[in-house]
């Protein structure tokens, strides 16, 4: 007895030991990373060139990792060393690595949030010349809004997209038919609210619409900010005045919060992308406004709602479209000693040939789509993505990161403001919004508090 | 028994005797004392290197303006970060949240753990199996347990709680069972409940160890003298368990204060559930503000040390025993 008891009491310590071991493993990884850099462009594999890549652990990246050796390395002789981490960790590590400019990693996966900021900090090598020299890559084939969102304020291109997404409205065609409802070709938010009211309870336990409510700048703030844009609101005016409790922002937020409270999913303050995906697949909601990348999952062979889903553009009020824009893209570190090899890797990973390769080897459903016009003209891809391919392409093409609202903006960004302070600001504000959705505070009080936070950020930009 | 508590007192006794030896004999005695300490030195050095050096680094960074996304601005700013930390309403709120969450979880799991330990102290068929089952929640990875609570239990659409309500109401022929939205209606309670489930077995184990080291003779004698069950519990068992209760509360508090998984998974810090670890995580990962996050960390460590010392001085018999 006694012995087991003290052992149990030590179990948490064992957990700590596991953590320490993990830390040690990470440090070891770091060390190998440094060794890989060779301190001065020396190659790891005697004779062969190599490129170090730091990337997020999304499924598309893991596919890439699998296909690299047998395809890219085989044809170019360049060995690729991957370091793969979850999103939060990868962001943190990339900003540490790139700010120190040690040249440890040649290529990193960055999103369109980071690309302009890193470019401005001088951490990324501009790709304009590289692209111009490579006609096979066909830069004109990259969707214009993607190019735009990866271009810095100085007009230089800082990254090449690997895959991209926008947002649109997904709805259950069969439920709409049964209730005699029609989805307009280009719905407005008011129409969607009306449809949500009518579809609410169409089947037992089915709500009208699923909208994210989970706190986080990349969770509730993303769809909410697109609603704010189309209602005519903005976070900041052109001359850096915070506009978070201005009438348009308030109207949009009230609309969003009321819609979720009246006809949205249960447990909304804890519902993010994953929870809404589950709700929609289980028939708990008739509509869902979210990322275009969800469509591939909803219409996959093993999805219970496959074939029953209709797709409409992101609802609007005062703008022509309101879909967001997000992409994971490849940036090359400025201090990298292997610029040419890194550029070859990027050209391969973001190229047309790679999409073909994935389609043939792993199936067309797993192609990193949403970045090239040619993808949406590919018959093989359309066979798999038919129901949502056109809607996705239009949503991405229609997104304008420079002008997403009704007024000029001080910086890039549709569902975020492209400044280093936004993740923190957006997350803090999102917690107020979640409280409003939970009914613990009013929208007015939440936005007044948010305005103070935003004003603090804006003041820094006004003064310098 | 002879568990952690006696290890603590042993250590205290050891330290006291070393000090006594050192005090009694100046000169060569000191060498003897050092000779006795020498085997411990590598461990001490290792401890200092792995625990204190990172803290010193944190301390240094806390006086710096260091935001990962503003590489040109890095430099020393004096006390700016500390001013930010003390002026940050969110951080102040998260201190209170942490206190409530820790106190609540530790107290509730202590009471439940005591009840379970008393039940398990009897002999019955299948006791080993029951004990193993009761320990299980403590062995679940914290983040997995949080996910389980969020989706399998609390979820208003397909969670077990609302499913159970539906089933109960159907027994009485009602079609409209109440379907409360658990996390939204009581966020801190929901986070607390999942932690209580995790930490009750821990408390139970420590108290069970304490119960099994009780002398049965005293209980027999009390019964012969006509004491009823309550009196035995009140005047024999509880005083004997005091040290174990304190130890369990102390260890439990240390771990629950640091809890991150439940808040992160269940609510993402929304609805007033952001505790200190979560708030610091946000300033580190979301704001990339290493200076402010380090300052917050330092303040938390300082506060914890003060509170822990006071609490131990006031209530604990753990460290007093050998002081004579």
Write the layout of secondary structure elements.
The complex is a heterodimer of chains A (464) and B (324).
Chain A: H1 2-9, H2 11-37, E1 50-56, H3 59-76, E2 79-85, H4 87-100, E3 107-111, H5 114-120, H6 128-132, H7 144-149, E4 160-165, E5 167-172, H8 173-178, H9 189-199, E6 207-210, H10 221-230, H11 247-263, H12 273-281, E7 285-291, H13 294-298, E8 309-313, E9 326-332, H14 339-349, H15 352-362, H16 379-398, H17 422-437, H18 443-462
Parallel strand pairs in A: 1-2, 1-3, 6-7
Antiparallel strand pairs in A: 3-9, 4-9, 5-7, 5-8
Helix pairs in contact in A: 10-11, 17-18
Chain B: H1 4-24, H2 28-37, H3 41-61, E1 64-65, E2 75-76, H4 80-87, H5 89-120, H6 127-139, H7 142-154, H8 160-171, H9 182-185, H10 187-212, H11 216-224, H12 229-257, H13 261-266, H14 276-285, H15 290-315
Antiparallel strand pairs in B: 1-2
Helix pairs in contact in B: 1-2, 3-15, 4-15, 5-10, 5-12, 6-10, 7-10, 10-12, 14-15
């Amino acid at each position: 007895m006694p012995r087991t008891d003290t052992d149990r009491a030590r179990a948490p310590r064992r957990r700590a030991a596991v953590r320490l071991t993990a830390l040690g493993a990470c440090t070891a990884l770091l060390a190998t990373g440094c060794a890989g850099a060779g301190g001065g462009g020396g190659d790891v594999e005697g004779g062969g060139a190599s490129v170090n890549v730091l990337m997020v652990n999304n499924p598309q990246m893991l596919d890439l990792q699998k296909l690299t050796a047998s395809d890219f390395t085989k044809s170019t002789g360049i060995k690729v060393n991957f370091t793969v981490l979850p999103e939060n960790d990868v962001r943190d590590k990339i900003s540490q690595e790139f700010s120190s400019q040690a040249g440890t990693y040649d290529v990193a996966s960055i999103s369109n949030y980071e690309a302009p900021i890193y470019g401005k900090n001088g951490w990324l090598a501009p790709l304009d010349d590289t692209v111009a020299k490579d006609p096979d890559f066909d830069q004109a084939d990259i969707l214009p809004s993607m190019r735009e969102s990866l271009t810095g304020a100085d007009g230089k291109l800082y990254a090449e997209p690997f895959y991209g997404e926008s947002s649109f409205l997904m709805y259950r065609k069969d439920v709409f038919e049964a209730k005699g409802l029609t989805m307009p070709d280009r719905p407005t938010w008011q129409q969607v609210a009306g449809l949500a009211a009518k579809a609410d309870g169409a089947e037992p336990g089915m709500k009208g619409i699923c909208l994210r409510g989970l706190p986080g700048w990349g969770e509730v703030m993303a769809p909410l900010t697109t609603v704010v844009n189309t209602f005519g609101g903005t976070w900041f005016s052109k001359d850096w005045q915070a506009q978070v409790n201005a009438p348009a922002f308030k109207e949009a937020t009230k609309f969003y919060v009321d819609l979720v409270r009246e006809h949205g999913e249960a447990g909304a303050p804890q519902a993010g992308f994953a929870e809404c995906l589950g709700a929609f697949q289980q028939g708990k909601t008739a509509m869902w406004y979210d990322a275009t990348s969800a469509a591939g999952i909803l219409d996959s062979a093993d999805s219970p709602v496959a074939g029953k889903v209709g797709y409409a553009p992101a609802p609007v009020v005062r703008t022509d479209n309101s879909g967001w824009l997000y992409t994971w893209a490849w940036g090359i570190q400025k201090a990298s000693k292997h610029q040419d090899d890194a550029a070859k890797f990027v050209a391969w990973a973001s190229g047309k040939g790679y999409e073909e390769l994935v389609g043939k080897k792993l199936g067309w459903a797993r192609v990193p789509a949403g970045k090239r016009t040619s993808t949406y003209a590919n018959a093989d891809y359309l066979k798999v993505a038919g129901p949502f391919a056109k809607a996705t392409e239009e949503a991405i093409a229609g997104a304008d990161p420079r002008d997403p609202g009704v007024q000029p903006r001080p910086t890039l960004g549709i569902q975020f403001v492209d400044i280093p302070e936004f993740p923190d600001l957006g997350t803090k504000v999102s917690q107020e919004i979640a409280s409003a959705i939970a009914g613990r505070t009013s929208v007015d009080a939440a936005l007044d508090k948010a305005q103070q936070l935003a004003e603090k950020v804006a003041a820094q930009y006004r003064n310098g | 028994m002879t568990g952690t508590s006696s290890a603590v007192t042993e250590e205290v006794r050891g330290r006291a005797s070393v000090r006594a030896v050192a005090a009694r004999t100046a000169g060569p005695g000191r060498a003897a004392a050092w000779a006795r300490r020498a085997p411990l030195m590598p461990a001490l050095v290792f401890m200092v290197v792995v625990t204190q050096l990172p803290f010193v680094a944190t301390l240094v960074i806390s006086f710096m303006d260091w935001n990962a996304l503003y590489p040109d601005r890095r430099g020393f700013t004096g006390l700016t970060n500390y001013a930010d930390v003390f002026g940050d309403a969110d951080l102040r709120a998260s201190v209170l949240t942490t206190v409530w969450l820790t106190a609540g979880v530790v107290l509730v799991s202590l009471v439940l753990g005591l009840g379970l330990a008393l039940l398990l102290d009897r002999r019955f068929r299948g006791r080993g199996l029951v004990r193993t089952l009761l320990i299980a929640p403590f062995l679940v990875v914290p983040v997995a347990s949080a996910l389980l609570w969020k989706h399998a239990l609390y979820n208003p659409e397909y969670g077990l709680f609302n499913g159970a309500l539906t089933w109960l109401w159907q027994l009485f022929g009602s079609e409209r069972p109440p379907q409360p939205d658990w996390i939204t209606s009581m966020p801190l309670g929901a986070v607390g409940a999942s932690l209580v489930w995790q930490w009750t077995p821990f408390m139970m184990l420590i108290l069970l160890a304490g119960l099994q080291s009780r002398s049965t003779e005293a209980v027999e004698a009390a019964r012969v003298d006509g004491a009823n069950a309550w009196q035995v519990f009140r005047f024999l068992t509880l005083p004997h368990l005091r040290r174990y209760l304190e130890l369990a509360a102390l260890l439990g508090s240390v771990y629950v204060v640091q809890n991150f998984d439940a808040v992160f998974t269940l609510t993402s810090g929304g609805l007033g559930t952001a505790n200190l670890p979560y708030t610091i995580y946000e300033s580190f990962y979301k704001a990339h503000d290493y200076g402010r996050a380090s300052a917050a960390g330092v303040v938390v460590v300082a506060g914890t040390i003060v509170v822990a010392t006071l609490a131990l001085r006031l209530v604990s018999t753990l460290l007093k025993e050998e002081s004579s």
